[in-house]
Amino acid sequence: MEISGMESKSNLQHSLRKYKFVFLGEQSVGKTSLITRFMYNTFDQTYQATIGIDFLSKTVYLENRTLRLQLWDTAGQERFRSLIPSYIRDSSVAVVLYDVTNRKSFESTNRWIDDVRAERGDDVIIILIGNKIDIEDKRQVTTDEGQAKANELGLMYFETSAKSGVNVETVFVEIAKKLPGSETAIDGSDAQSNSARENQFSD
Q1: What is the model's pLDDT at position 66?
Q2: Tens digit of each residue's pLDDT (9 = 90 or more) over 83-127
Q3: What is the DSSP string of 143-190?
Q4: Mind listing the domains of the chain with CATH numbers?
């Protein structure tokens, strides 16, 4: 009976449609914090730079099917940039973040978007996100500027606060609607995480 149960679980996991999300942007724009807020609804006040690439996965339940989102958290430091194209290459979604309190991080999004287009052409959903809107008094990039860039490049656009959680779930709900075959919103989820350096596909 135990073997049967394990097989049944394995079959369920393999039947899930998997979508690869890659998170891009300069160092300290909040990529890890955004993922953590979505996965666990928490925020870590202590900043730790991502080293290389980290991998997390989350199962989301739609009204008509279940999806596994594979979330690839990339380092923003220049010394890791050569690693990024190989992770973009087979992605379904590229999430490009900037910090609304840091104009340089906004200007650098063109570079990240160019990298995505070079690897995936039009076969990928690209999301532009202005993060850290909770620090409104230090904002350097207006909402209109972010939206204008997204409109110009044909991207989806959102502003979020990983710290407060504002719009974070909305981002993933709207992305889920755009994925092939998805026409409904996320209504629940379970999550698991691991380091890509240790075990990229634990399930």
Answers
A1: 82
A2: 778 779 899 999 999 999 999 999 999 999 999 999 999 999 999
A3: HHHHHHHHHHHT-EEEE--TTT-TTHHHHHHHHHHHSTT--S----EE
A4: 18-178 (3.40.50.300)
**pLDDT beneath 50, residues of the chain:** 1-14, 51, 183-203
Burial of 4 (0-12, 13-18, 19+ CB in 10 A): exposed
List of residues 6+ apart from 22 with CB closer than 8 A: 72, 74, 84, 87, 88, 91, 93, 94, 95
The closest of 96, 136, 129 to 114, measured between CA atoms, is 96
Residue 203 identity = D
> Under a CB-based contact definition with an 8 Å cutoff, are residues 62 and 187 in contact?
yes
State in Å, rounded, how far the first CA of the chain is from the last one: 21
CB within 8 Å of 4: residues ≥ 6 apart: none
Q: CB neighbours of 198 closer than 8 A, spacing ≥ 6?
A: none
pTM: 0.79
